[in-house]
Specification:
Elements lengths: L4 E7 L2 E8 L2 E5 L2 E5 L6 E5 L2 E5 L8 E5 L2 E5 L3 E5 L3 E3 L5 H15 L5 H24 L2
Parallel strand pairs: 1-9
Antiparallel strand pairs: 1-2, 3-4, 3-6, 5-8, 6-7, 7-10, 8-9
Helix pairs in contact: 1-2
Amino acid sequence: MMKKVHLTITVPNGTFYEGDVDIVTLKTAEGYIGLSASRTPLFSNIEIGHVIIGWEHDPSSIKCVIGGGLVYADQQKVNIITDDIINAKDIDVKRAERERDTIQAQLSHKSNDSDISKLELKLKKALSRIDTYNQFNK
């Protein structure tokens, strides 16, 4: 039997998830990585993308979209800190599509670089929500 790692996902208003898992998969600047027990320590930024708690094809796994954050992992635990994580089952895809359309319209009229950067980040998050919803809610 595979050794489990203790996962804690902390959000501003408390704990999003806490429990022992086989693996958690998330996106760093290097791409998607799987974090499991008995690993070398890691501290990294989390990129906008999916988080999968458990094995991807296991029906009991939890699929989420994350808008960034920090991760620390060692041999026994994985700690994720974020202010933007949503279970794929709870994504309001119609809202995400409306946000995408609104932001794309705003981008076509902006010339200020700081406004463009903020809008591009919001667009990336909306697109990630749509992608996560479509990938995991079949």
